[in-house]
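re the bet — no i am not wrong, look at it urself. input seq straight from the record:
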Amino acid sequence: MRAWGRVRRPCVSGWLLLSGVWGLCAVAAAAPRGDYNVFLEQTYTDNAPLEADAQSDWLTVLGVEGVLSEHGGRLDADLRARVAREEYYRNTVEDDTALSLLADTRFWLRPRTLSWAFYDRFARVGETVEDAERPGAQQNANVVWTGPDAAFHLGPVDDWLLGGRVGHTYFESDADSVRYAANTGWRHRTDENAELTVIGRAQQVDFKEQSDTAIDYDRYDLFAGHQRTGGSPLQWRAQLGMSRVELDGRDSDDALLLDSEVTYRRSAPTLVGARLAHQYTDATGRLLDTSGILRGLEPVTDLSVGTSLIYERRYELFFRREAPIWTAEARGYYVDEDFKTEDSDRDISGLRLSGSRSLSARADLGGEVYGERIHYQLFEREDKDYGASVSLTWRLGSELRLRGAVGHIVRNSDVDAAEYEENRVLIALVYGGSLD
C-alpha cells in the first residue's frame, strides 16, 4: 500500500488553475520590465522531416516572443513566452502552432518568511528519446507546480524550513502524472552571501495510466547543502545526501544524491563553470529543472515524453568570454542515463562552441558548431550528430532588424533509417522593443 494514499484529481486541478491565474495576474499588475519581438521567418530546407529519405520544403513562421521580469517588494517573477505559427508549403511536416512558456513566480505573503510559488512550463518535446529533434515526432507537454514555503526564524541566522508542492504533468499521449511533495529542514546563514542547509524531502508520483513503464513511486531524499551566491568571484551550490525510491510492486532502490555547480569569474568578461550531478529524475523533473547558477542554458539532453524513472550521472564544463565587440562560449558535457522501467539506457557526450562579433554599428555576425555522440547501451545503436551555422543580423532601425542564416546538420548512425542530413537557409524580419 502507498504510504501517502491518493487525492482526487479534480481537487488538484482546481488548485493548479487558481494558483496559475493568481500568479499571472500578480505579474501583470506589478508593471514588470521586459522585452518583446515580433518576427516573420522564411526558411528553405532540403530535408524538412529530418529523415533518411530527404524531402525539401519551404517553412514560413510568424510569431511573437517576450520576456518579463519583476523582482522586489512582494513579488519575484520571471516569464518567458513564445508563440509561432509554422506553415510548410509542401506539407512534408504537419502545420502547427508552437507555444513555449516558462513562468516562475513567487509571491511573498510575509516578506522573507511565508510565500507561495507557482511554476508553469509548456514545451514541445520528442515522442521518443531517439527522435526528440524530429519535427514530425513531437508533442506538447505542460508541467504545473505550485505550493507554499515557510521559514520560521529560530535566531538571527537560523531558520526552520517547511514547504509543500502539488503538480500535474500533461502530455498529448497517456503519460500524465500527478505528484505531491513536502520538505522540511534547517538553514544556517554563515554570512550575507552563504548558507548551510539540511533538508528532508518526500515525493509521491501517480500516473494517470499505469503500464510496464509508467509505475507509481515514492521518493525520499535526505541531504545537506551549502551555497555561496555573491561577495566573491567564486560561487557555488552543492547538495550531498541519499535518495530512496520505492516503485509499486518492486524492491526499494537507494542511491547517492549529488548535485553541485560552481562558477568562477576571474574578471568581469570571463566566466568559467562546472556541474556535477548524480540523481534521480524523469521527464517531468527535467521540465522543472531551472535552478542553479547556470540557469538559462539549454538542456544537455533533448526533452522527450517519458514515464520511466531515470538515474543520471551528469558532468558539464562551461566557459564564456565577453569583450566590447565579441563574445565566445564553449560547453562540454557527458551524461549517463540509467532508465529504471524502459530499455533506453544511454550515454551522451558532446561539445558546443558559439560566438558573435559586432562588424559595425548596424551589423553583427554569429556562429555555432557542435558535435554529439549518443550511445544506446541495451541495443546496437550509436548516433553521431554534427552541425554548424552562421548568421548575420542587420539593424534597419532602432527596433527593426533583418536576419539571415545558413546551417548544416548531419546524423551518422548504426541504424540506416535514423541517418539524415540537412541544409537550410533562413531570412527573417524582426521588430522588437523594451517594456521598460
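see?? Helices lie at 9-29, 283-288. told u. also The longest strand covers residues 57-72. so pay up
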